[in-house]
Amino acid sequence: MKKDFILPIAVLVLICIVTTGLLAATNSVTQPVIAQAERERADAERTAILPEADEFQQIDAKLPEGVTEIYAATNGAGYVITSEASGYGGAGSIRIMVAVSGDGRIIASRTLANGETKGLGSRVSEPGYEDQFAGMDASLQGYNAVTGATISSNAYKSAISNALLAFESVTAAAR
Questions:
Q1: Shared domain check, 6 and 80
Q2: Residues 6+ away with beta carbon under 8 Å from 129
Q3: Domains of the chain: total
Q4: 109 with 81: CB under 8 angstroms?
Q5: Is 33 part of a structural domain of the chain?
Q6: Which domain holds residue 16?
Q7: How far is the C-alpha of 56 from the C-alpha of 174, rounded, in Å?
Q8: Is pTM, for the whole model, over 0.90?
Q9: Tens digits of residue pLDDT in 138-174
């Protein structure tokens, strides 16, 4: 009777141990490959938004809320800052990358992730909307919101403002 009860449990435990070991081994092999692919993808995104840069160096600094990373072009072409903000209903999140010149003007912005409502709030990811920020300074004067998607537009603007705050804090510390 005990054999009928203990044997299946022992077999299941053994299967779980072997499966866990195989998953751990697979993870240890694939994790560096995945991390490298993510670094290469991020470098490609940075190069696409700031093509004048030769290479990028990550800046280690205390960053404003919403800013996840900031990179400086090693040749002085500018900075690339990744920032995010909550959008409509707090459920959506907009993650963007902003290229900023040395004088604090936006070179370009690009949406990396957009959890906003499809067809309405998601329009802030369209090139026509993103392109309006090129040439603007921290005042963001002249920015136009997407009609019917004010919250999403303001979230995008907030992410850009946070990126520019990060730029100001990093460049002020370097002076």
A1: no
A2: 123, 146, 153, 156
A3: 2
A4: no
A5: yes
A6: 1-39
A7: 17
A8: no
A9: 888 888 777 777 777 788 888 899 999 999 888 876 6
